[in-house]
Amino acid sequence: MKILHTTPAQDGFFMPAEFAPHEGCLMIWPERADSWQYGAYAARRAFIRVIEVISESEKMTVLCSENQYDNARAQLPDRVRLVVMATDDAWARDVGPTFVIDSCGGRRGIDWGFNAWGGTVDGLYPSWERDNRVARKFCDLLENDVYNKRDFICEGGSIHVDGEGTALVTEACLLSAGRNPALSRKEIEQTLCAYLGVSKVIWLPRGIYNDETNEHVDNVCAFTAPGEVVLAWTDDANDPQYALSKASLDALEAATDAQGRRIRVHKLPLPAPVTITEEECRGLDLCDGEATRTPGERLAASYVNFYIANGAVVMPAFGDPMDEKAQAILQSLFPTRKVVSIPARDILIGGGNIHCITQQIPRA
Ligand code: KQY
Fold first, then answer.
1. Which of 44, 108, 184, 275 has its CA 20 to 30 A from that of 141?
2. Distance CA 56, CA 309 (A)
3. What backbone phi and psi angles, to 5 degrees, belong to 181?
4. pLDDT at position 199, please?
5. Would you kindly state where each structural domain of the chain is located, as residue ranges?
6. Are 355 and 305 contacting, i.e. CB atoms less than 8 angstroms apart?
7. pLDDT, position 357
8. d(Cα 76, Cα 312) in Å, to the nearest integer?
9. What is the pLDDT of residue 266?
10. CATH architecture of the domain with range 3-362
11. Is 162 helix (H, G, I), strand (E, B) or coil?
């Protein structure tokens, strides 16, 4: 495996859309006791269900700690490849490589810098060195060369692309003080263009209310096809989310993509606010002496946090009447894939959802 110091755009590589064909998917076995309540037992059940569904149509690789290898092996389907690799938590979207491909059958990874969503400014755990090394190690495992971009803090959940030259990000996240404070908005945009192989970046102002990632785009808006997105939406003007979603709607309606198209926006309803219970908080260890959640805290629940697999769209469900409506909307937007909904409260408690715990490996 070579470590590259050029850029993907210079070399003719670009990030394909998530709805383009995948060779496989990367996930990480949950274990961290201040993220996953009560020994991560319930979280593991939800992760396993996600793994089962995705691995029906893609080669699945799961990373786990040495301590968890036997336990994970016993619970995962035989068709899943299980690899021991040290991580700090289970967010494959954010710590795994972002893959880029070219038109000659090549695939490479990008190794962004990772600082636990904000480093010493507002990061979510005090040490992230193991996570920061996952992208490069995983490229080594796949025998894919890797672009070194550790001097730029970026998580996979903070970017979406349409595969036709357009990227989607939020200002709240990409311009946050804990990411790349020395870079201007223009410099950040130039970096995204050089590494994702895009020519246009659409900036949404905000993401999902109380999203501890500084409002990753993958929880609020996602491409479903070139020129088409779903946007997390509420009609309740008293919900703090309303102003955030409305600001993003305005930005999308004013934008054109890299091909000069206007963006078609499909509103995806949000579930009623989801809050964490006292009992759930009691099951979480302290992090650096502090509680990671407070009883009654609103969690960043959104149906937009789905994963587009080769044969399925895997979406979170929250036991809310909107679950079925959201599923029907997604099914109409992905007619060639089966939309499978998975109860995901136990993933949400960790701070993200199905998109955040998966990372696609595009077919080269
Ligand atoms: O991408 C994500 N949404 C990850 C969130 C991590 C939160 C850590 N508690």
1. 44
2. 9
3. -65, -20
4. 98
5. 3-362
6. yes
7. 99
8. 19
9. 98
10. 5-stranded Propeller (3.75)
11. coil
Residue ranges lining ligand 1, Cβ < 6 Å: 35, 91, 93-94, 124, 157, 212-213, 216, 350-352, 356
Reference 323, options 298, 297, 342; nearest CA is: 342
Which structure tokens are listed for 19? 């709805």
Ligand 1 atom showing the smallest separation from residue 305 Cα:
3
pTM: 0.98
Tell which atom from ligand 1 comes closest to the C-alpha of 35.
Answer: 9
User: What are the helix and strand counts (H, E) for the chain?
Assistant: 13, 19
- The residue type of 160 is H
For ligand 1, atom 6, name the residue with the nearest CA: 351
Which residue is closest in CA terms to ligand 1's atom 4? Answer: 352
269-328 per-position pLDDT tens digit: 999 999 999 999 999 999 999 999 999 999 999 999 999 999 999 999 999 999 999 999
Q: Distance between CA 58 and CA 52 in Å, rounded?
A: 10
| Distance from C-alpha of 26 to C-alpha of 23, rounded to nearest angstrom | 10
| Number of Cβ within a 10 Å radius of residue 86 | 14
Measured in whole angstroms, the distance separating CA 324 from the mean position of its chain's CA atoms is 22
Active-site residue flag, 356: yes
pLDDT band at 363 (very low <50, low <70, confident <90, very high): very high
